Amino acid sequence: MKKLLFFLLLFPSLVFGQSVYTYGGKVLTYSGDVLTVTSGTPAVLEDGSTVAWYIADNLTTITKDGADLVSRWNDYLGSGHDLIQATGTNQPLWSSDGILFDGVDNFMKTAAFTYVQPEMIYMVFKQVTWTLYDRIFDGNIVSTGQLAQRETTPNLLYFAGGGGGDCEDPGNLAVNTWGIIRMLFNGASTKFIINETTPITCFPGLNNMGGFTLGARGDDVSWSNIEVKEIILRNVDDTDANETDIYNYLKNKYGL
Fold first, then answer.
1. pLDDT on residue 75
2. What is the distance of C-alpha 181 from the center of its chain?
3. What CATH number is attached to the domain comprising 57?
4. How confident is the model at residue 151, as a pLDDT?
5. Residues 23, 78 within the same domain
6. Are residues 7 and 62 both part of a single domain?
7. Based on the number of CB atoms within 10 Å of its own CB, is 234 exposed (0-12), middle (13-18) or buried (19 or more)?
8. How far is CA 204 from the centre of its chain?
9. Are residues 65 and 33 in the same domain?
């Protein structure tokens, strides 16, 4: 307790309630005589295994016009694996809540790049509406690593060429509800998790993504009506500890 009182004397502007405190954008927790401080993003995201990182509320990475239509969403880490949409009618809409894809013709796409299994995808998004066969994302070409709306609302199916039957989440993300997905394409070790539900394991195929298409199938059809806050693409099967760090960062940042 003495340690906590000393800390409060040093930082009198500390805002606190019960055992959780904040100071200068940091989150602090107190238990017994242990004070833990966490701040910013997990260091693992800059370990060389993050191939792209898209953050909708970081306007330094967003190119948009006066109507907030987005033509470019750059990788925060500067890899050049930027999501691009040059055609005005196909551009999604930026707002302070995220980037909205209309389900009619909006999509964004990277240029092709080397992205092979294992491929780990973290994404904060919501299904604004649900339509059978609409694609949330895919690889550079069709069916190379897709998440699709199947078979009944609000189910999601993941697919990378097939070989092990349908790999489907049975409705763990309700329509018009924000959630976090963790998607690993890695052959027979593939898994899919929505929020903190039980991982869905399956064998969706061995196709490599080779790039990233957001809001549509890899051949730029089957557009989905979704809103997206943040996406992290990694080229590694994250350890449980690293996966938890990344998930908790997203969960705490967006209050999910």
1. 98
2. 6
3. 2.60.120.200
4. 87
5. no
6. no
7. buried
8. 20
9. no
d(C-alpha 204, C-alpha 164), whole Å? 6
28/254 Cα distance (integer angstroms): 17
Q: Which of 46, 85, 101, 97 is nearest to 246 (CA)?
A: 46
Structure confidence at residue 179 (pLDDT) = 98
**Do 30 and 119 fall within a single domain?**
no
Residue ranges for the chain with pLDDT beneath 50: 1-39
Separation of alpha carbons 85 and 102, rounded Å: 14
Number of domains the chain is built from: 2
* Domain hosting residue 131, numbered range: 43-254
Mapped to the 3 state alphabet, what secondary structure does 34-94 carry?
Answer: EEEEECCCCHHHHCCCEEEEEECCCHHHEEECCCCEEEEECCCCCCCCCEECCCHHHCCEE
Contact (Cβ atoms closer than 8 angstroms) between residue 92 and residue 99: yes
Alpha carbon distance 180, 243 (integer Å): 12
> 129 near 226, Cβ under 8 Å?
no
Structural tokens at position 95: 């707002």
At 162 the pLDDT is 83
96/152 same-domain check = yes
Q: Structure pTM? A: 0.84
> CA-to-CA distance for 181 and 145, rounded, in angstroms?
14
pLDDT at 18: 37
- CB atoms under 10 Å from CB of 45, counted, come to 18
Phi first, then psi: what are they for 26, rounded to 5°?
-95, 155
